[in-house]
Amino acid sequence: MKQELVFEAPRRQMPPRHFADLDEAGRLQAVADLGLPAFRAKQLANQYYGRLTADPAAMTDLPAALRGRLAETLFPTLLTAVRQIECDAGETRKTLWRAGDGTTVESVLMRYPQRNTVCISSQAGCGMACPFCATGQGGLTRNLSAAEILEQVRAAAATLRDEHGDRLSNIVFMGMGEPLANYNRVISVLRRIIAAPPNGFGISARSVTVSTVGLAPAIRRLADEGLGVTLALSLHAPDDELRDTLVPVNNRWNLAEALDAARYYADTTGRRISVEYALIRDVNDQPWRADLLGKKLHAALGPLVHVNLIPLNPTPGSQWDASPKPVEREFVRRVRAKGVTCTVRDTRGREIAAACGQLAAEG
Ligand code: SAH
Q: Of 6, 260, 337, 357, which has the fewest CB atoms closer than 10 Å, so is most exposed?
C-alpha cells in the first residue's frame, strides 16, 4: 500500500506539561507559580538531570509535603515501560513505552566496549512513508512532547548507572519518527541534552546524531541553531528517480537540494555529515550506483562526509532483502575509490525487531 507524505502531525491532545519541557527561565517561572523560592528550580533540575530522578517521592532533599504537589503539577508520569526485550547477550535492550493517551513508542539501548548509545523516538509513528521502513508503514500518530523524548534519554542513563555503573555517551534520533518534522520540540530536547548539569544531561553535542530524510529548509535552520550536533542524512539512492520511490520526500526536496543543505550544515558547523544508505538487494546496490554515490558525495561534500551502509533489515510483508556480502564489499570498495570514507553499520537488535527501521511498537 502506498502511504501519503504527512508533514503536519494530526491534531491530537498533547501530554500534560512536564518539568523537562521547560528551559531555565520556564523552570523558574513554574516554581514561582507554585509559590516556591527560586532555589527550588535548581534543586529540581539537579534531581532530574543530575540524579536522573523523575519521581518527586524520591527527592528526599525536598520537604515531604511539597513532593505530592510537585508530582501533580510538574512531574506527571509520561511514559511507562510496558515491555523490555534483550538480545546480543544482553548488550542490546529494546523498551516499549506507553504514553498517557495509550500511544506507544520504542527506544533501544546499545552497550559497546567504548560507548553506550540510546536510539530514541521523536514522534509516534512517522509521516515520511519510506516503503522499506516498518515505522513508515504505519503513518504518523502524533508528535512526542519534549519531555516524552527526554524521558527516553533519562531512563537509558538511569539504567546504565543502576545496572552497569556506567554512563550514557551517545544519543541517536534514529528511532520512530522524523525529528526535523517535530522541529521546535527536538531543538529544545537537544538543548537539554547538551547543557551541563544541572541544566541538562551534559552529553557532548558531537555524540548526538539527528537523522533526517532530508527536509532541506529544516537542515539549514538546524545548522543556524549553533548546536554542533552530528547530522545524518538518509540518502539511500544517488539518483532522483530511485530516491523518489525509496524516500518519498525526495519529490519535495530532491537530492541536489538535500546535498546543498547538508553542505551548508557541514560548512556552518564544521561537522562531517553522516550519510545513511540502506543496502537493498537488486534495488540500490548496483556497482554503478556505488560509483555515482561516491562521485556525487565527493563533489558535494569533499572530506566532510562519511557513508554508513546499513544492511537492509527486512520488515514484515516486504519483498526486499539485504544485499549479499560480496555485493556489499564491492559497494564499499567503489565508494571508497571515489575518495569517500565508507563503513558498514553493525546490525544490533535484529532478533528483537530493534534494528534500524524495525521499530513499529505493536506491543
Ligand atoms: N526519520 C529519520 C530517522 C529514522 S530511522 C530518517 O529517516 O533518517 C534511522 C535510519 O534507519 C534511517 O536512515 C532510515 O532510513 C533507516 N532505516 C529505516 N528502515 C530501515 C530498514 N528496514 N533497514 C535498514 N535501515 C532502515
A: 337
Crossing angle, helix 216-224 and helix 255-269, to 10 degrees?
0
Q: What is the rounded CA–CA span in Å between residue 84 and residue 108?
A: 9
So which residues are the catalytic ones?
Answer: 106, 356
Q: Please report the domains of the chain, with CATH numbers, ordered by start residue.
A: 19-73 (1.10.150.530), 79-352 (3.20.20.70)
Please check if 126 is assigned to a binding site.
yes
d(CA 361, CA 339): 39
Q: Among residues of the chain, what percentage have pLDDT more than 90?
A: 87
User: Would the CB of 19 count as within 6 Å of ligand 1?
Assistant: no
207-243: pLDDT as tens digits: 999 999 999 999 999 999 999 999 999 999 999 999 9
Mutational test site, ligand 1, from 7, 276, 348, max ligand atoms within 8 Å of CB: 276
Strands 116-119 and 123-125: unpaired
Over its C-alpha atoms, the chain yields an Rg (Å, rounded) of 21
Residue nearest to atom 7 of ligand 1 (CA): 213
Q: How far is CA 188 from the centre of its chain?
A: 14
Ligand 1 centroid, distance to 226 Cα (angstroms): 25
**What is the three-class DSSP state of 65?**
helix
Q: Does 299 score more than 80 pLDDT?
A: yes
- CA-nearest of 332, 262, 242 to 302 is 262
CA 189 to chain centre: 11
The answer to whether 119 is a known ligand-binding residue is no
Is 133 labeled as ligand-binding? yes
Q: Could you tell me if the CB of 119 is within 6 A of ligand 1? A: no
| Element holding 125 (H helix, E strand) | strand 123-125
Q: Give CA–CA dist 128/181, Å, rounded.
A: 9
Q: What is the mean pLDDT of residues 264-288?
A: 97
Q: Which of 5, 135, 174 to mutate to test the pocket of ligand 1 (most atoms within 8 A of CB)?
A: 174
